[in-house]
Amino acid sequence: MIAFAFGLGALAVAFAGVHGVRLLRADPLDALTAQDRGLIHRSVQAKKTDVGPIGRMAQSLARELGPLMGDAYRRFMTRKIIESGRADYADFAQFMTMKSKLVILGAVPTLLICLYLNFWVAGVAFILALFLIPDIALWSKASERQEEIEDELPDFLDVLAVTVSAGLSFRGALERVIERSDGPLSEEMLLTLRQMDVGQSRTEAFEDLRRRTTSESLESFITALLQSEELGSPLTDALNQIALDMRRVTAQRARQKAARANPKISAVVSLVMVPATMILIGVGMFFAVDIDFGQLFGNLRQ
């Protein structure tokens, strides 16, 4: 009887071990839905991307520096964050955190260099440059994104006009064009559609789109769209005319860029290539003539 009991116990232990190994190899997320698994993965990813001690110091410093920069600076940089499509920063607080992190990371090496060289002006200038780098990068990214919107708009409107003339409603045609295109313009249009999905009217959604961008061509399109909705005029003709006008504006802007690039190329040639060519010619003449400078200087001393 005792042997039978030990046998049952050993069998139970073996069964528990096999079941435990199977549980270790199994994924507990398989029993969840796709939405629940996505939420868990996002929460885990958020925990993995902990800010760390430097990030926490930067956040504390950003909370102190933010009010010191003033409301005008906050509004201006928030505008640039929106124009850049929130590619790098979600809000002004995150932007200030990045600026503070650069200052913290650059403070220690700058202090060591200043103590070694005893030149504090260069250290202050370096810290100031680190503090301004995110501003310049954000300004550049916002400008590039707005230029991309300006360049994509004529083709976008041509396809939209053809789709509307094929018989689809404006909403359906806009969704169809967005599905088959990519870029910042499609992203902004998709955001406008999502705003209409949550209850905003078409006028309010496109007015928000007008405020999020600086493109004059896009503003003309929004004005023509809203006027067409109010007056009941055909939208296809207006889209074709706006696309044609925007292509003329794009060609004019390209010619202006080419005209501005000519002085820059001339400056590079004058400041870099001409001196480099003169140095190359001088070095070649030096080795070709093979002058003995020691003998030459000796003769001059005598």
In short:
The protein has 302 residues and is mainly α. It has helices at residues 2-25, 34-48, 52-69, 71-83, 92-117, 120-165, 170-179, 184-197, 202-212, 216-231, 235-289, 293-301. The chain is built from 12 helices and no strands.
Describe how the helices and strands are arranged.
Blueprint: H1 2-25, H2 34-48, H3 52-69, H4 71-83, H5 92-117, H6 120-165, H7 170-179, H8 184-197, H9 202-212, H10 216-231, H11 235-289, H12 293-301
Helix pairs in contact: 3-5, 4-6, 5-6, 6-7, 6-11, 7-8, 8-9, 9-10, 10-11
Describe this structure in words.
Among the domains are: 52-142, no CATH class; 147-253, Receptor-associated Protein, CATH 1.20.81. The longest helix has 55 residues, at 235-289. The chain has 302 residues and is mostly helical. It has helices at residues 2-25, 34-48, 52-69, 71-83, 92-117, 120-165, 170-179, 184-197, 202-212, 216-231, 235-289, 293-301. The protein is extended, with a radius of gyration of 33 Å. It starts with a helix and ends with a helix. Helix 6 crosses helix 7 and helix 7 (170-179) packs across helix 8. Residues 44-50 have low confidence and may be disordered.
